[in-house]
UniProtKB/TrEMBL annotation:
Similarity comment text for this entry: Belongs to the non-flavoprotein flavin reductase family.
Protein's recorded name: Flavin reductase domain protein FMN-binding
Keywords of the record: Oxidoreductase
Stored SUPFAM superfamilies: FMN-binding split barrel
Organism from which the protein derives: Beijerinckia indica subsp. indica (strain ATCC 9039 / DSM 1715 / NCIMB 8712)
InterPro entries from the UniProt entry: Flavin_Rdtase-like_dom, NADH-dep_flavin_reductase, Split_barrel_FMN-bd
Domain of life (superkingdom): Bacteria
Flavin reductase like domain span: 18-163
Entry's Gene Ontology molecular function annotations: FMN binding; riboflavin reductase (NADPH) activity
Gene3D superfamilies noted in UniProt: Electron Transport, Fmn-binding Protein, Chain A
């Protein structure tokens, strides 16, 4: 609990704390038959490198959820700062396949929707899932990765989009 504010509940405190967690905005996609599905996500993180793997969280209510659970394959298209216009359509303002009328989409070599111009696109097979708090946590094993040379990720912080900026400080060892 912050000494500067009076809490209304543990949930409100948690929400306020999470507004300080800056995250890259991604579009998670899958395909089932000829139908494409996609949603905006900030709950994406690398999990390991041996094997390369990602973790995503998908609400049970998301239109992508059930097709993803059946297809067992997904893509994470990390947005660039120039692609903020895609957030509205993929966060519910547009329904179903009409979302893919926004942006330039092609099929990855594994058949998944790939956004051209994305900072990076990582395609995965579902390795494991578990349920928690109305979400399915999905661990994916990476099957293909595509990325841009220029790094300009679209970030979400405190309820708005922001850019990253290099800080002048002591060098950090390469990961």
């Amino acid at each position: 609990m912050s000494q500067d504010t009076q809490p209304t509940s543990a949930i409100d405190d948690f929400k306020h704390a999470m507004r300080r967690l800056t995250a890259t905005v991604s579009l998670v996609t899958t395909i089932e038959g000829e139908n494409r599905y996609g949603m905006v996500a900030t709950a994406v993180c690398s999990l390991g490198v041996a094997p390369p793997s990602l973790l995503i969280s998908v609400a049970h209510t998301a239109s992508l959820h059930d097709p993803l659970m059946r297809s067992r394959r997904f893509g994470v298209n990390m947005l660039s700062t120039e692609q903020s216009f895609l957030v509205g359509p993929f966060s519910g303002m547009v329904k179903g396949k009409e979302r893919f009328a926004f942006g330039e989409w092609i099929r990855s070599c594994h058949g998944l929707p790939r956004l051209l111009g994305a900072q990076a696109s990582v395609f995965c097979d579902v390795a494991q899932t578990f349920e928690h708090s109305g979400h399915t946590v999905v661990i994916g094993t990476v099957i293909e990765t595509i990325y841009q040379d220029a790094i300009r990720p679209l970030l979400y912080e405190n309820g708005r989009f922001v850019r990253s900026e290099v800080l002048e400080s002591a060098p950090i060892a390469n990961r």
